[in-house]
Design brief:
Number of helices of chain A: 26
CATH topology of the largest domain in chain B: BirA Bifunctional Protein, domain 2
Shape of chain A: flat
Oligomer: heterodimer
Radius of gyration of chain B: 20 Å
Shape of chain B: globular
Number of helices of chain B: 8
CATH topology of the largest domain in chain A: Hypothetical protein af1432
CATH architecture of the largest domain in chain A: Orthogonal Bundle
Distance between the termini of chain A: 50 Å
Structural class of chain B: alpha+beta
CATH architecture of the largest domain in chain B: 2-Layer Sandwich
Largest interface: A-B, 44 and 37 residues
Strand content of chain B: 15-25%
Order of helices and strands of chain B: HEHEEHEEEEEHHHHH
């Protein structure tokens, strides 16, 4: 069966776009062919620096004839509708067929030659290609990522003739820009195409380009007894920058090795796209680098290595300048500069963020067993490196540089580590911090981000999450679960609201409305801290309890709490910050955490319905929630669990039905004289189970609670088998209903079983 | 490094002039108003717009007051040279022409690693953007290569190709020196050899001092406003053929832009003010761009897409 080969040859395509472009090319071709009823046996596409290539195997020479029955208007519909239908089908009224009062068109389409369809397809793909950014050139109006120079389109050995805005299709392409012959050449099919390209120094397949880079790099390193520092992302990128990628090992001035290794690697990577090289024995960076050139130079790459070494020296000199300059100013002294940097217009400066982080870390430290003073110091200095020259140059070194500079200042290692690691975990593969001081600051950092943006109503929607709040929530979850630290979400959100006290500026007073939760700063002549400390507690209480609002006025520094004004009326003055009330935000943040946690648990293979069943209890302690889900999961896998689940359902439904008839009797069941042995057994079992469940829950021994419940299984089963609940004797019926309610409620303390589906 | 004797700084300029002259470019002299980059020369910003073809090459002294380091940093200068080429419409073989210019200045493309690395150019103060690359030679950025898509917020049609060479950096590479001051400015074996430092080091020292500590900020602010006010005034006038007075108006945009850079170097621009100043300059540029296009009889696009006449 015939083969189709397409090459779209252009000027250099950005490396980061090539892989997606190849995927889009393949998808669009498959979709178009399928819409024409053409299904290839195989399709493969390749993206490279100057070309997108697609090969489709096993296409028919002609499209098969196609039949379609299309439903039209009802018989007796207005003429307009009929005319529209006839126009769209190209038939006459006589050709339509009536069936059950509706007109149908039998459309028969003669199959067309495949090349005709291919020509239409390529033109459409070229015109509609989803480049992230595209341009026009010269006098043309066609858009492509960079100027499109040639189109190869060969079907079954023959050119498929067409042109798109003056670019004619053909069977001619060219090789490497510098190493090729400079002469275009003809191709008949994919094999010849790939072979001729290779002869003209172009490796078509990005995977082969990567292999060539890695093989070459490892050979070079091996000869000098060095190790290549792997970097998957960089490999992808450099494989998109060269058609004939050729690794070259160069020398770096050894004097630069006293810079932090991350600085050297980052400078190499971001500015120069070099791989770092390690000395295997001490496992430290070696004074070399590996670059990937686009040519195999006649001199073996000597000139290229020397030139690149010079550029690297200039870059590392810059880095050394920052390293030396930055260390002249202490982190503490850099904080002043953060006052002039806006974190977010509605959330104030970075300095204000730092003040919140200090207070938050102070509140969180005891929850994770951290030294409070150290956590607060680390929080205070955590963002100071944002003002350094090095982080200005390499933003990805934030945190890390702060850690280095803290060590240079002889700040305690625990604090320096916390400064370094407080952004972690930064991705799914990054480890969550597990030392207490770092955990405290890392939690504070994420909670401030999360709560602050919820408080100003900047929540993620759909795929939009500009402040990476999902990542922040996931980070909190991973830190808490990893350490089993106990920190209920609502309390943490409350900690954040308490940290708002830092919004008191000298020379201004503070007004807070809990309805609008507005920070208003009016004139103030006394020291704000003095004033603030006097009413801060009452302020916090008002804030957290949702009281109307609190006004601090200048004439009365003994603090007047004015709760008389109608909620929502903002007093006069400039509104500085405005936050939504604690209660609303706490609920939303908790729901947000619940969603994130569900994703985490689902990824671990936990049943979705079990997560719901546990969340329904309203707990906001993530560690406890997960422990419950795990216990429940284990329980429901046992024979007892499955049966008891059925028993609970029966009890619950029966109670629901009875409730419609009238209020259910309250209180526990009693052992009635003359009751059947099954009833008596269940009364006994529940009276044993209830305190056992309560005790286990109190100790957060959820597996124990489940075990206690499993003791009910036999008696519940036997009860339902032998005992008729709706006895005609009222006292008997009531007692039995009480008994079932007890069973339901005992189980309900462990999870909401009505939400368990499977 | 090239094997022959490397080009002097002025030799490099002369080679590029010779090369681009042979490609049909008019070889212009620098614009006589201070600018921050070669793009801002009216031969690029204004000539890129409108329907007419245009090819020009020139050296443009570029001033970045904030980049001055008293001549003590080996790579940073507050006054340096850009070599600028503009070809409208861009010829189909512009990449090959560009590579030819590298060969002309002694960079053998079979020995050096030349790569086109994505870099999308944008200049918010003149409302301009384009797509293209930074061109790397052995890991060093030697040129910026752009297909200009918009200037002054207006579509560039036909599209112009713009090439910018950083002359000091390129010369340092060719001559193999690590400090701009050590560049051979003219022939080092000639009767009166001069280095770049001989010619410009004192210039860097004095201007750095003036940029950072010298100018009176209030005066700069007033001068900015004085320049700003001339622009709509000039654009509102008509010349003998009924044309808008664009070229003089645009010179005042450039003067305002330079005054802004001076204020910035003095640390006199607050974060909040910054966007507003940039916005003012952009608006002035847009006014000029629009008037220029009207003078030229449209922007070359089909009628339906013409800018408002």
């Amino acid at each position: 069966m015939p083969q189709l080969l397409i090459e779209l040859f252009s000027e250099e395509i950005p490396a980061r776009m090539q892989a997606q472009a190849a995927r889009d090319f393949e998808r669009l071709a498959r979709e178009h062919l399928a819409s024409e009823g053409l299904i290839p046996e195989a399709v493969k596409s390749f993206g490279g620096p100057r070309r997108l290539t697609l090969v489709a195997e096993g296409l028919p020479a002609t499209q098969g004839d196609r039949h379609e029955d299309r439903k039209g208007p009802r018989v007796g519909s207005p003429d307009q509708a009929m005319e529209g239908f006839l126009r769209s089908t190209g038939l006459t009224r006589e050709q339509l067929v009536e069936k059950d009062g509706v007109w149908f068109a039998h459309i028969h389409r003669q199959g067309r030659p495949t090349p005709e369809i291919i020509a239409e397809m390529v033109e459409k793909i070229v015109r509609d290609f989803p480049w992230p950014k595209s341009m026009t050139w010269g006098r043309g109006t066609l858009r492509w990522v960079r100027p499109l120079k040639r189109i190869v389109c060969v079907f079954d050995g023959e050119v498929v003739p067409f042109s798109v805005d003056g670019v004619e299709s053909g069977n001619v392409t060219e090789g490497h820009r510098f190493m090729g012959s400079g002469q275009p050449f003809k191709v008949r099919d994919f094999d010849e195409y790939a072979e001729k390209l290779a002869k003209h120094f172009v490796i078509l397949d990005p995977e082969e380009r990567k292999d060539r880079i890695l093989d070459g790099a490892k050979t070079l390193c091996f000869a000098r007894n060095l190790d290549l520092v792997d970097d998957e992302g960089l490999l992808d990128e450099v494989a998109g920058l060269a058609e004939w990628p050729t690794p070259v090992l160069g020398d770096m001035e050894p004097a630069f090795l006293d810079l932090p290794p991350e600085v050297i690697r980052t400078s190499m990577r971001t500015h120069q796209k070099y791989f770092a090289v390690r000395d295997p024995a001490p496992g430290k960076l070696a004074p070399h680098f590996l670059t990937v050139a686009n040519i195999e130079a006649a001199d073996g790459g000597k000139v290229i290595a020397a030139g690149n070494a010079k550029v690297l020296s200039a870059r590392l000199s810059d880095a050394r300048f920052f390293w030396d300059e930055d260390r002249k100013t202490s982190l503490e002294d850099r904080l002043e500069k953060l006052k002039g940097v806006t974190f977010h217009a509605k959330l104030g400066s970075l300095y204000e963020r730092v003040e919140r982080l200090e207070l938050l870390s102070k509140a969180i430290a005891p929850r994770v067993g951290a030294d409070v003073a150290k956590a607060v110091l680390a929080a205070r200095l955590a963002k100071a490196d944002l003002g350094t020259g090095m982080v200005g140059e390499f933003p990805e070194l934030q945190g890390l540089m702060g850690g280095y500079y803290a060590r240079e200042e002889k700040i305690s290692g625990v604090v320096a580590d916390a400064i370094r690691d407080h952004y972690r975990p930064v991705g799914a593969n990054d480890e969550a911090p597990d030392t207490p001081v770092t955990m405290a600051v890392a939690l504070a950092e994420k909670l401030d981000t999360l709560t602050a943006f919820f408080a100003i109503n900047e929540k993620p929607t759909g795929s939009r999450d500009p402040y990476a709040l999902r990542r922040a929530a996931l980070g909190v979850i991973r830190i808490l679960l990893g350490s089993e630290a106990r920190a209920p979400v609502r309390e943490l959100v409350g900690d954040w609201y308490r940290s708002l006290r830092c919004f008191v500026d000298p020379g201004r007073a503070l007004y807070v409305s809990t309805k609008r939760t507005t920070g208003y700063l009016g004139p103030l002549s006394r020291s704000p801290s003095e004033v603030f400390e006097t009413y801060v507690e009452e302020f916090e209480d008002a804030l957290l309890e949702g009281k109307p609002y609190v006004v601090v006025t200048e004439e009365d520094f003994d603090i007047r709490f004015d709760r008389s004004a109608a909620a929502g009326d903002a007093p006069e003055g400039e509104v500085i910050y405005e936050f939504r009330p604690y209660g609303v935000v706490a609920d939303e943040v908790m729901a947000f955490f619940a969603d994130r946690l569900k994703v985490v648990l689902r990824d671990q293979g936990k049943r979705h319905d079990l997560v719901d069943a546990v969340f329904a209890l309203g707990d906001d302690d993530l560690v406890r929630i997960v422990a419950r889900v795990e216990a429940l999961d284990g329980f429901l896998k046992t024979e007892d669990g499955k049966n008891l689940l059925a028993g609970e359902k029966r009890a619950r439904q029966l109670l629901q039905a009875e409730e419609k008839k009238g209020p259910l009797p309250a209180g526990p069941a009693v052992g009635m004289a003359g009751a059947s042995p099954e009833e008596t057994a269940l009364v006994g079992a529940i009276s044993l189970a209830e305190p056992a469940v309560a005790r286990a829950l109190h100790n957060e021994d959820f597996a124990g609670a489940m075990r206690a419940l499993s003791g009910l299984r036999g008696p519940v089963d036997a009860f339902f088998e032998k005992v008729l609940v709706n006895s005609e004797v009222a006292a008997e019926r009531e007692n039995r209903l009480r008994l079932l309610a007890q069973v339901r409620d005992a189980m309900g303390r462990v999870a909401d079983f009505s939400l368990v589906t499977g | 490094m090239p094997t022959d004797k490397p080009l002097s700084f002025q030799g490099l300029i002369l080679k590029l002039h010779d090369y681009w002259s042979r490609q049909g470019c008019v070889i212009l002299q620098p614009h006589d108003v201070e600018v921050g980059a070669g793009t801002l020369h009216p031969a690029t910003v204004l000539r890129a717009l409108g329907p007419k073809s245009w090819r020009a090459a020139y050296v443009q002294p570029s001033r970045r007051p904030g980049d001055g380091r008293y001549g003590e940093n080996p790579n940073r200068l507050q006054h340096y040279y850009q070599y600028q080429v503009i070809l409208k419409p861009n010829p189909d073989n512009l990449q090959e022409l560009y590579l030819g210019s590298l060969e002309a200045i002694g960079l053998n493309t079979r020995l050096h690693d030349i790569r086109f690395v994505e870099d999308d150019w944008e200049n918010p103060t003149v409302g301009a953007w384009g797509l293209g690359w930074e061109v790397w030679c052995d890991g060093m950025e030697v040129s910026q290569y752009t297909y200009m898509q918009q200037v002054g917020g207006l579509d560039v049609f036909p599209v112009a190709g713009e090439l910018t060479y950083g002359l000091e950096r390129l010369a340092m590479y060719i001559q193999g020196v690590d400090n701009f001051a050590d560049l051979a400015f003219n022939d080092p074996d000639g009767p009166e050899p001069k280095t770049y430092g001989d010619v410009f080091l004192e210039n860097e020292r004095q201007h750095s001092e003036a940029n950072f500590h010298g100018y009176d900020v209030e005066t700069l602010k007033r001068q900015f406003e004085d320049m700003e006010i001339q622009v709509p005034r000039l654009l509102g006038m008509t010349g003998p053929q009924g044309q808008a007075i664009v070229l003089p108006a645009y010179d005042h945009v450039l003067k305002a832009s330079h005054l802004f850079n001076l204020m910035d170097a003095r640390g006199a621009i607050a974060v909040a003010e910054r966007q507003s100043y940039i916005g003012r300059i952009r608006d002035l540029t847009k006014m000029c761009a629009l008037a220029w296009v009207k003078n030229e009889g449209g922007n070359g696009l089909p009628d339906a897409e013409q800018v408002a006449k």
